[in-house]
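Schema walk-through. Below, the input block comes first and the output block second. Nothing else is stored per chain. Lengths vary across the set, and this one has 308 residues.
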Amino acid sequence: MPVDPRRLLLLRTVRRTGSVLAAARLLHLTPSGVSQHLTKLENELGIDLVDREQRGGGRTIRFTPAGNALADHAGRVAEALAEAERDMEQFREGPAGPLRIGGFSVAISELGAPVAMRMAAANPALDPHVYEISESERLHALATGELDLILSERPGADGPERPPGVVEVDLMRDPFRVVVPATWPSDAEPATLLARRWITTSFGPATRRHLERMCREHGLELDSYDIGTGTAPTLLGLVAHGLGATIIPSLTLRQNPSPKVRISSAIADPGSRVLTCLHRENAPAIVHHLINELRHHAATELQHVPSG
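--- output ---
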């Protein structure tokens, strides 16, 4: 019986993500739906592809040797399909087909989604797909052709290098804001504010480095506690209850407004981050058009000047 290529690609995604649950999230399917496709693929081939004792739920899935071999073939199928799509682009009169964008939540909601939907409204032949996935998954999906463009943040000097064959383009500078409890008195001097308690996260090490630098400049030692990989709502919730001040990107604050916090202007320049997009070197014309639209949206709708 012929093998359904869609199930091959699903098998590949399950191996890449490590579990049925993670694959289901990425593919926008239910976990039971993913499991059913795997079972049908095994029935088509008459071969066990996964270890039944390790299968299902959020647990790591274990492949049989046959399953790993077939997943390798599925990777080559995905690359061939992506190459075919790129080749067909030259025969189209205008941009058409899927436009696949991955990124983190703020970049997706503030940049990726509105721009992709506006482009699709102007050209109904476009079919945008937007995914919120981790940085490592985004880079892998870009390299294999599952994504056309990813929205990211330019790493610091000590950050990881981008993989070969990937081009990074600056989109906009997102300034940091100093956020304090609304009940705190105004601080006219930076040193007065810097001497207070601060809340940091391991997810945003750049902001902590900025704080440490500013404290050194004023002869102070940073008084802070790290809440781990806390989300923006958690961070702002702690600030709102008076547990300390924090530094947060403007777009993140825009997404999480709170009447119990306020922006302090005591520190004139707390720093910024640069939002970027990444694409393959051989990206089709529609990707470059998307980049231009993203930069235009950043400059006009978000009131930030594109960096670089």
